[in-house]
Amino acid sequence: MYYDRGGAEKQVRMPRVLRSASRHVGAGILGVPSSQAFGDGEAARVWVLAAMWVAAAALGILAASLPQPRQVDRLGELFIALAGGATGIGLWSRISRVPSWAVHVLLAGGVVCVSAAVYLAHGGNQAVAGGYMYLWIVSYAGYFFRPRVAAVHFAFVAAAFLCIVALGGVGRQPGPVAVMVLGTAAGSGVVLNRLAKFLREAAVTDQLTGLSNRNALPRIFEREVAHMKRTGGRLSAALVDLDGLKSVNDTAGHQAGDRLIADAARRWQSALRDVDSLLRHGGDEFVLLMPSCGIEDALAVCERMRVAGEVPCSIGVTEWAPGEELDALLGRADRALYEAKRAGRGRIVLQDRLQAS
User: Fold this and answer.
1) Could you write out the three-class secondary structure of 21-53?
2) What is the mean pLDDT of residues 111-118?
3) Which pTM value belongs to this model?
4) Which residues contact 75 (CB under 8 A, 6 or more apart)?
5) 6: confidence class by pLDDT, cuts 50, 70, 90
6) Which of 53, 117, 155, 303 is the most buried (most CB within 10 A)?
7) 212-350: which CATH topology?
8) How many CA atoms lie within 13 A of 226 on its CB side?
9) Are 144 and 40 in contact (CB under 8 A)?
10) What are the tens digits of pLDDT across the range 327-346?
11) Is residue 103 within 8 Å of 45, Cβ to Cβ?
């Protein structure tokens, strides 16, 4: 319940952003943190790194406990494995408090530990097998980092392994071993880097319309807010709802409804400015962010968009207040959208003004 400028009491529904709060999930199986719970995947990145350290330590301890050639320094390898296990457990205890730079340092530390373990094998079979531990490091870097950063980590791996080769740490014929270990590591890093890029793009793209989806909304909102703070400009937002989609689905089928959504998105997009961001929020609802645009100009932008579509739509528009969170902004736009639909659909309503156009 709220009051319009005339003091009249208005009854409204619960904002959709509140009804969708369940999208924020907590930790999953084995305590793996979700990116929504901890931010842009940083905690998940640390969790995987900690798991790698612990898994490598477990394998090292197991290998040290098995029969080994006499030249293998089992005590040294056991010490490295125990140190790695302690590092992994320490990371798990500080998952949300590990800075980004520390991840790179710890990954480089992993290279040093693997290299030391390979060298302590003194050319035995374990030296060759240990070399494949580099594969974990390069794969991790390929998945979580940009190509240039991943390439730097691979270069460090290659330099470290070639130093061990030069010291005679992998036997009398190190050439084939170096080619296989480094070649496999490089190939895995490239494949995982491309896969990660595809997955990141798919996670923030609506497959039906090709627009960004609700997963991309927080990042785009933060980007626009940062720009408005730098320039002193204004930012407006709108919630757009296709009118009558349910009746189309019921009478013509969901495929017809999908075609309607895709066509509307394409027409709306063509009517917007290059700087505007149109996202599909889910179902028949879209979000529009309009940077460098006060609410009066936003009305004109939304009117062009409404006219461009063949199917009527209702739009609720509001303007961002400095310091306002995304959910609060969308909540006000949602109330305006509700008033637009209640007023007869196919209308634009400005939040707080509640004047249909």
Assistant:
1) HHHCCCCCHHHCCCHHHHCCCHHHHHHHHHHHH
2) 90
3) 0.67
4) none
5) very low
6) 117
7) Alpha-Beta Plaits (3.30.70)
8) 6
9) no
10) 999 999 999 999 999 988 88
11) yes
